[in-house]
Amino acid sequence: MKFLTRKLIKPEDLNANNTLFGGKLLKWIDEEAGIYAMTKLGCAQVVTKFISEIDFVNSASQADVIEIGLQFISIGKSSITFGCEVRNIFTKKSIIKIERIVFVNVDDEGRSKPHGKTLASIKEKATHSSEINN
Q: pTM for the whole thing?
Protein backbone atom coordinates (compact mmCIF):
# COMPACT_ATOMS: atom_id res chain seq x y z
CA MET A 1 0.00 0.00 0.00
CA LYS A 2 1.40 3.38 -0.98
CA PHE A 3 0.08 6.28 1.09
CA LEU A 4 0.07 9.26 -1.21
CA THR A 5 -2.10 12.03 0.17
CA ARG A 6 -2.68 13.50 3.60
CA LYS A 7 -5.67 15.52 4.71
CA LEU A 8 -6.33 17.57 7.83
CA ILE A 9 -9.91 17.11 9.04
CA LYS A 10 -11.48 20.59 9.33
CA PRO A 11 -14.89 21.72 10.64
CA GLU A 12 -16.36 21.84 7.13
CA ASP A 13 -15.49 18.12 6.69
CA LEU A 14 -17.67 16.97 9.61
CA ASN A 15 -21.15 15.47 9.69
CA ALA A 16 -23.91 16.08 12.27
CA ASN A 17 -22.15 13.65 14.61
CA ASN A 18 -18.96 15.78 14.52
CA THR A 19 -17.01 13.04 12.74
CA LEU A 20 -15.66 12.97 9.20
CA PHE A 21 -18.50 12.98 6.67
CA GLY A 22 -18.28 9.77 4.62
CA GLY A 23 -19.22 11.52 1.40
CA LYS A 24 -16.32 13.94 1.76
CA LEU A 25 -13.92 11.07 2.36
CA LEU A 26 -15.22 9.18 -0.69
CA LYS A 27 -14.74 12.31 -2.80
CA TRP A 28 -11.11 12.54 -1.67
CA ILE A 29 -10.55 8.83 -2.36
CA ASP A 30 -12.11 8.99 -5.83
CA GLU A 31 -10.01 12.02 -6.75
CA GLU A 32 -6.76 10.51 -5.44
CA ALA A 33 -7.41 7.13 -7.07
CA GLY A 34 -8.31 8.81 -10.37
CA ILE A 35 -5.06 10.77 -10.38
CA TYR A 36 -3.15 7.60 -9.49
CA ALA A 37 -4.84 5.76 -12.38
CA MET A 38 -3.86 8.57 -14.75
CA THR A 39 -0.23 8.42 -13.64
CA LYS A 40 -0.06 4.62 -13.86
CA LEU A 41 -1.67 4.54 -17.32
CA GLY A 42 -0.20 7.74 -18.72
CA CYS A 43 -3.74 8.70 -19.79
CA ALA A 44 -5.64 11.80 -18.72
CA GLN A 45 -9.12 10.52 -19.56
CA VAL A 46 -10.12 7.93 -16.97
CA VAL A 47 -13.43 7.51 -15.22
CA THR A 48 -14.52 5.62 -12.14
CA LYS A 49 -16.24 2.41 -13.24
CA PHE A 50 -16.74 0.56 -9.96
CA ILE A 51 -16.16 0.89 -6.24
CA SER A 52 -16.64 -2.29 -4.22
CA GLU A 53 -18.09 -2.51 -0.74
CA ILE A 54 -16.90 0.33 1.48
CA ASP A 55 -16.01 -0.66 5.03
CA PHE A 56 -16.03 2.22 7.52
CA VAL A 57 -13.79 0.79 10.25
CA ASN A 58 -13.23 3.80 12.55
CA SER A 59 -14.24 7.44 12.51
CA ALA A 60 -12.06 10.51 12.20
CA SER A 61 -12.56 13.78 14.08
CA GLN A 62 -11.68 17.42 13.64
CA ALA A 63 -7.90 18.02 13.71
CA ASP A 64 -7.10 14.39 12.85
CA VAL A 65 -4.68 13.94 9.98
CA ILE A 66 -5.51 11.07 7.65
CA GLU A 67 -3.63 9.50 4.77
CA ILE A 68 -5.05 7.84 1.69
CA GLY A 69 -3.31 4.65 0.57
CA LEU A 70 -3.67 2.87 -2.75
CA GLN A 71 -2.36 -0.46 -3.96
CA PHE A 72 -2.26 -1.67 -7.54
CA ILE A 73 -4.26 -4.89 -7.94
CA SER A 74 -4.71 -5.61 -11.64
CA ILE A 75 -4.83 -4.25 -15.13
CA GLY A 76 -7.24 -4.99 -17.97
CA LYS A 77 -7.39 -3.94 -21.62
CA SER A 78 -8.96 -0.56 -20.78
CA SER A 79 -9.09 -0.70 -16.97
CA ILE A 80 -6.92 -0.57 -13.88
CA THR A 81 -7.88 -1.70 -10.39
CA PHE A 82 -6.63 -0.57 -6.97
CA GLY A 83 -7.33 -1.36 -3.35
CA CYS A 84 -7.63 1.51 -0.86
CA GLU A 85 -7.14 2.13 2.82
CA VAL A 86 -7.45 5.41 4.68
CA ARG A 87 -5.87 5.61 8.10
CA ASN A 88 -5.05 8.07 10.84
CA ILE A 89 -1.48 9.12 10.19
CA PHE A 90 -0.46 9.16 13.86
CA THR A 91 -2.35 6.21 15.36
CA LYS A 92 -2.30 4.13 12.13
CA LYS A 93 -5.92 3.13 12.90
CA SER A 94 -7.79 2.26 9.75
CA ILE A 95 -10.72 4.56 8.94
CA ILE A 96 -11.97 3.02 5.71
CA LYS A 97 -11.10 0.05 3.51
CA ILE A 98 -12.18 -0.52 -0.07
CA GLU A 99 -11.21 -3.80 -1.73
CA ARG A 100 -11.49 -2.63 -5.33
CA ILE A 101 -11.75 0.64 -7.22
CA VAL A 102 -11.82 0.25 -11.00
CA PHE A 103 -11.01 3.01 -13.47
CA VAL A 104 -11.51 2.82 -17.22
CA ASN A 105 -9.64 4.73 -19.89
CA VAL A 106 -12.14 6.49 -22.20
CA ASP A 107 -12.13 8.31 -25.53
CA ASP A 108 -13.54 11.78 -26.21
CA GLU A 109 -17.09 10.36 -26.39
CA GLY A 110 -16.72 8.60 -23.03
CA ARG A 111 -16.43 5.11 -24.52
CA SER A 112 -14.02 2.53 -23.15
CA LYS A 113 -10.69 2.66 -24.96
CA PRO A 114 -7.63 0.39 -24.61
CA HIS A 115 -4.80 2.10 -22.72
CA GLY A 116 -2.01 -0.02 -24.19
CA LYS A 117 -0.35 -0.79 -20.84
CA THR A 118 0.67 -4.21 -19.59
CA LEU A 119 1.33 -5.61 -16.16
CA ALA A 120 5.05 -5.54 -16.95
CA SER A 121 4.97 -1.85 -17.91
CA ILE A 122 3.06 -0.94 -14.73
CA LYS A 123 5.54 -2.89 -12.57
CA GLU A 124 8.51 -1.37 -14.42
CA LYS A 125 7.15 2.13 -13.84
CA ALA A 126 6.73 1.31 -10.14
CA THR A 127 10.33 0.12 -9.93
CA HIS A 128 11.65 3.27 -11.59
CA SER A 129 9.67 5.55 -9.30
CA SER A 130 10.64 3.63 -6.13
CA GLU A 131 7.08 2.44 -5.50
CA ILE A 132 6.67 -0.79 -3.61
CA ASN A 133 3.35 -1.87 -5.05
CA ASN A 134 2.26 -5.24 -6.26
A: 0.88
